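Take a look at the protein record below with the fold in mind.
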Amino acid sequence: MAVIIIIETSTEICSVALMRDGQFIDLIESSEGQNHARLTTVFTEQLLGRNNIDSKEISAVAVSKGPGSYTGLRIGVSTAKGFCFAAQVPLIAIGTLEAMTKHVSLNQTQYGIPNHKPTLYCPMIDARRMEVFSMLLDETGKIIKPISADIIDHTFLANELNDYQIVFFGNGSEKCRKVLLSENAVFLNNISASAKHMCELVWLAYIKNQFEDVAYFEPFYLKDFVATVSKKNMLG
């Protein structure tokens, strides 16, 4: 029996899931905001407790590797590494945008995505102002445009929108709705980065033994962390 803890903290959502032998079994998540440091370990312990799973039964820990919030990713990866070291189990890292896309592509009917046009998927994570972290994939998961930090204006993916229906989703997609006016642009609401959405890719990585080096693994931040200084604390 393979039991895997899955941690997703790349956005404002703090999400922890459990899966057993390739099947999702339970989830706890919160959208309270910047409480990941406090909630991630608590959620994990609560999941194990209410499912009567001892930490010694854990087979692996999976974590979202980014891109996303610098602080959120750091907390998630640090927590995952801590469990891996303590339980002596392997670490699995899954791309945030790839996991969101896998979930949407497997649930086209549920989300009302038209199926009569060639379709591409564009997951988006908010990167403040009019910038997003995004990538473009086809229905098989093949990468058409690699992950990048993009400034959104009317020219974004203009060529691709001429030839394909593109499904936009994630917490960065709403800012694009009023800018990308092509009839081939489809916007989905309320698609968030969630540990539950990682299950398919996590299990695939597990059965293929695609594990990370626990000691040296680092999240995919995409952009360097820039600290801001409160004006209240600045010396005149």
The chain has two domains: 3-96+193-233, 112-187. Residues 225-236 have pLDDT under 50 and may be disordered. Residues 112-187 form a domain with the Nucleotidyltransferase; domain 5 fold (CATH 3.30.420).
